[in-house]
Amino acid sequence: MPQPPKSQLHPATIAAQAAGAVDPASGGVVPPVQFATTYLRDENYDLVNPDNVYLRSHNENTRVAERILNALEGAEGTLIFPSGMAAIAAVFRTVPNGASVVVQSQIYWGTTKWIRDFCTRRQIALHEVDASDLDAFAALCRAEKPDLCLIETPSNPWLRITDIAGAAAAAHEVGATLVVDSTAASPVLSHPLEHGADIVMHSATKGINGHSDVLAGSLATNDAGAPRWQMIRDDRNEAGAVIGPMEAWLLARGMRTLPLRMREMSRNAMTLAEFLADHPQVEQVMYPGLPDHPGHALAAQQMSGGYGGLLSFVVKGGAEAALNAAGRLQLFHRATSLGGVESLVEHRHTIEPHTGIPEGLLRLSVGIEDVEDLGADLGQALGQ
After folding, report:
1. More exposed terminus of the chain, fewer Cβ within 10 Å: N or C?
2. SS3 of residue 302 by DSSP
3. 47 DSSP β-pair partners
4. Which residue positions in the chain have pLDDT lower than 70?
5. Hey, which residues are catalytic here?
6. How far from each other are the two terminal CA atoms of the chain, in whole angstroms?
7. In sequence order, what are the residues at sequence separation of 6 or more whose Cβ sits closer than 8 angstroms to the Cβ of residue 327?
């Protein structure tokens, strides 16, 4: 059977075959890890491999991970960073002093806190808005004419859905760059670049790696020649915001099962969301796969293959009831983060009590365990 062009390959094929990466030296089907920090020149002082001079700028393991992500994103350029926050920081360092930015409110607290501090230091006017309200987002863009806009969809931990195409139109109308944090969806379930985003960001620590053993971040763009993208590329190299070879190799290995993991996580999360929605001890369930979720129709339009493994729910009885339920869980690990193969639970009000998070909210990162076991664990913890 003739092989289809690379651009026509499905995500599962791209991921499983590591976008074509192998070990040409040995013939191995697994790409090797290369730890060298510097590279040889011959007797004429020509580089033995013209692509490699020094690890901070050149590493094949990073290139392999970037090629896989680039193919999954449908991007023109992709850069890997040592963390999701390093990727966010690289984007915001392109904003001139004295400019303004529009940022979605009530997103991942680590992002919000860093951006607030950074904008204060750089005299950048920060405007926060519930971007799931497209009219409010567009009105703020017209009023403030920002240099850059950042949205997060689905948002963490509120699971709000923002119209990417609408936000892109609003940002572009005033000449702003739209950045989308798509961590909760992964490049398997959502393709923000196809909806008009200029840059898509991921904390690759989460679902992209999927095994809770690598810290990484990524940025991808549909315009690798754009001045902002060149600034980001140069900043990563010159500031040394690079990932190590072993981390890049582990990241590439993790991505080989990304479509399988996201499919199972989404399926499990949907089942648990339906279970929780009917539970008498649950006040509210936040999951875009549920038909009564305010962003369900939009999520169905701009996501494909599922709604992700992240969900939140509010336990009746406030903080005490939520913490008691979390304490009784036996399979869900009480830990932060999301997107790993193991299921996690977190009481977000403990982490960010000042951001409006309901005291009874528990955030679940649903893994790939048998969903009947996970449901039974939630049931006994809540009291069936």
Report:
1. N
2. helix
3. 41
4. 1-7, 384
5. 56, 108, 181, 206
6. 53
7. 334
Structural domains in the chain, CATH included, are 9-255 (3.40.640.10), 258-382 (3.90.1150.10)
* CA torsion through residues 19, 25, 31, 34, sign: negative
- The per-residue pLDDT for 5 is 46
**Strand ranges inside the chain, DSSP E:** 77-81, 100-104, 125-129, 148-152, 177-181, 199-202, 217-221, 282-286, 310-315, 333-334, 344-347, 361-365
Alpha carbon distance 337, 29 (integer Å): 32
- What pLDDT is stored for residue 8 in this prediction? 81
Q: Which two tokens stand for residue 158?
A: 């509120």
pLDDT in tens, 208-263: 999 999 999 999 999 999 999 999 999 999 999 999 999 999 999 999 999 999 99
pLDDT value at position 7?
A: 58
Are residues 321 and 199 in contact, defined by beta-carbon separation less than 8 angstroms?
Answer: no
Give CA–CA dist 293/288, Å, rounded: 5
